[in-house]
């Protein structure tokens, strides 16, 4: 019996999975020494852009897909190097992965309301993949990126506050 248990233990020890390398993922990148100033903030300082959407009636957001309160906001870049700049909105807990919009974070706030971002051509930006985000030329070490924010109904909206945010990064070439 002891020999059988010993043989089984040896057999189990030899029956491990076999692994072999099938390829290599080669990763390259570049670190830029200087970044642009965003809306006048010092390099390396987090820029805060405040956007206040107008108060709208819940009847304007009565059906799924309805939008209201489109409000412009601008990212002014200065002291830039490179030739192009692009905004990358960061995927995080405030982003609804199914819609690509920003979820309402207000406690007891309006139900069935998200905030959508639009590029300068009024095309919706799906934050989950940054589709329709924009790239602009840097001229004389400066660039301007125009965006819009708007309410987006995910169903019949209820009255209440709307509060959300999204982190962004700038990509330079």
UniProtKB/TrEMBL annotation:
It comes from the Bacteria. Its main location: other. SUPFAM superfamilies: Bacterial adhesins (SSF49401). The keyword Signal applies. Residues 1-20 form the signal peptide. One of its GO terms (biological process) is cell adhesion involved in single-species biofilm formation. Keywords: Fimbrium, Signal. The keyword Nuclease does not apply. It is found in: Fimbrium. GO terms for cellular component: pilus. Pfam families: FimA (PF16970). Belongs to the fimbrial protein family. This is Type 1 fimbrial protein.
């Amino acid at each position: 019996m002891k020999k059988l248990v010993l043989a089984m233990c040896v057999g189990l020890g030899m029956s491990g999975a076999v692994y072999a390398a099938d390829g290599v993922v080669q990763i390259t990148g570049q670190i830029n020494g200087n970044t642009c100033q965003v809306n006048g903030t010092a390099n390396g300082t987090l820029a805060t852009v405040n956007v206040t959407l107008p108060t709208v009636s819940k009847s304007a957001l009565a059906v799924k897909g309805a939008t209201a309160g489109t409000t412009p906001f601008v990212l002014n870049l200065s002291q830039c190097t490179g030739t192009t700049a692009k905004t990358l909105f960061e995927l995080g807990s405030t982003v609804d992965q199914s819609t690509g919009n920003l979820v309402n974070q207000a406690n007891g706030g309006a139900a069935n309301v998200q905030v959508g971002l639009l590029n300068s051509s009024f095309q919706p930006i799906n934050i989950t993949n940054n589709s329709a985000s924009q790239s602009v030329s840097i001229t004389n070490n400066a660039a301007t990126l125009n965006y819009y924010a708007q309410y987006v109904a995910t169903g019949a909206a209820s009255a209440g506050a709307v509060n959300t945010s999204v982190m962004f990064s700038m990509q330079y070439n």
